[in-house]
Amino acid sequence: MPRGDTAFLFDLDGTLVDSVYQHVLAWKEALDREGVELSVWRIHRKIGMSGGLFANMLLRETGLGITDERLARLRQWHAEAYNRQAAQDAVRPLPGARELLAFLTEEGIPWAIATSGRMQTAQHNLEALGVDPSKVPVVTRDQVRYAKPDPDLFITAAQRLGMDVHYSLVVGDSIWDMLAAKRARALGVGLLSGGYGQEELEDAGAFRVYEDPADLLKHIDEVAARR
What we know:
CATH architecture of the largest domain: 3-Layer(aba) Sandwich
CATH topology of the largest domain: Rossmann fold
Shape: globular
Distance between the termini: 8 Å
Keywords: Hydrolase
Organism: Dyella halodurans
CATH class of the largest domain: Alpha Beta
Pfam families: Hydrolase
GO molecular function: hydrolase activity
Largest sheet: 6 strands, parallel
Structural class: alpha/beta
InterPro entries: HAD-like_hydrolase_sf, HAD-like_sf, HAD-SF_hydro_IA, HAD_sf, PGP-like_dom2
């Protein structure tokens, strides 16, 4: 398989940008503001799935009523809290993220970003990475019917590249990324930089697991097709 036939489809939070725990704290602030008491660890376990599904599951665990108005408030308050942290330079690229993307570009290997976040929060992360959405395919929650663990984000990203998703590598830090990769019939590559363990990622479908983007770049020959 020539390199041009293989694409890298990246998750964003926890995969390329060190932002998982900022999202956790932002959701915690939003839930507290709504009067929903939930432990931080329960929030972390759901980071990476779509915001709507995430909020539904959290509220279901608390036994509170779920309304469109409540979900809309939670999403808005989460975005406000997260963007406030991002504006304070609390969100930065993970080690090796920029170098990995630069390597793929130099080698002519197509890549795109697919995130369950909406552009309202993803914009800060893209700016931190130096990624211009007008030049690189970036698929956000705003652009698909369903987000992770459904495969829509990664399928759409592959289509934007003009690639077959079955020959693509989905790189993510959560079990939701790996489940979405399996449903898209793509290969999943897991990173530990979002807080999930190696066995969790492998059980969810990852065929390789690395520490972070820098570690993936160091072992890129294990996953990137040869010329």
